[in-house]
Amino acid sequence: MLKPILYALTTTIISTSAYAAIPMPDYAVPSQGQQVILNIPQLRLFLFQDGKLIKTYPITVGKASTQTPLGEYKIGAKITNPTWNIPLSIQKEMAASGKTVQKSVPPGPDNPLGPVFVRLGAPRLGLGIHGTNVPSSVPGVRSHGCIRLRSPNALDFAAAVQSGADAAVIYQQASVNTDAQNDIWIAVYRDPYNKRTLNKKLLNQSISSWAEQHQLQVNHKRLNNALSKPASTLICLTCSGGKTKVSGNLSSLQWTNGIGEIVELKYIDITDNKPKQEIAPESNSIEVDEDADQAPKQNITPPHSTTTPANPKRSAPATTAPASADSDFDALM
Description:
Distance between the termini: 35 Å
Strand content: 25-35%
Number of domains: 2
Strand order of the largest sheet: 2-5-4-3-14-7-10-11-13
């Protein structure tokens, strides 16, 4: 039976001052439990615990031809030192490019999965969050669909996240935040999948609404420049008097619906639905589409970052066994 969901006026907050200037997504996270958010245009992963941001990392996502699918997921099994079973499609790519065809890559420094693989969604989806043997490829837009982190970050994430936690892959081309002095900050990101879904009308509406409530003057020249030249950098739209730094922590406005109010925490009773750790046996093999080269071919990163057409359909892998019960794992990298 589903528990009732209530919304309160408590805002999403940041628990560590080091994260204070990182743009926050427009997403209501739960007041209890964990929530993972992956924003494709921002190239960033967020991990929340009980409504507080506890981890955030730059990421590499699927390229335009093998997009990371948007949607709601559950975090699954966590596999350390995975063996990469190379799919036939990747073996064909190796042969076509004149490379030595390999069928598998054992754990170690040459493994594209890095030291850990965290299942994202059901095994049949073939998705995961993992490390890499090419750290320079993060952040970027170049995977076969999986989420890639630098290996130290992947290990840190795997240690912190719980199997069974909620995860959301979203596509927000802007972050509209406010700081402790109510000033409005914006960061605009490139559109890696050419979705062209940035609703400027709702964005402007939310900014105007907040500014009017707090008697602020919006610098429309800065706003237009940010929208016309996405650079992923935080820009203050209402700061005056030489203010150049965020005051306190950032909170996201509900700009995607044009309301212009702070994103609230989502209150939900999870006492009967606590996530359970799902630990796969050691030496599990994972079949995953991933690049086996030594240097990134495509690495679309946001310039001057202060922090760091429709989705193609995917064919489902043959196996549907739970991740912790099958020694062969299918995944898209």
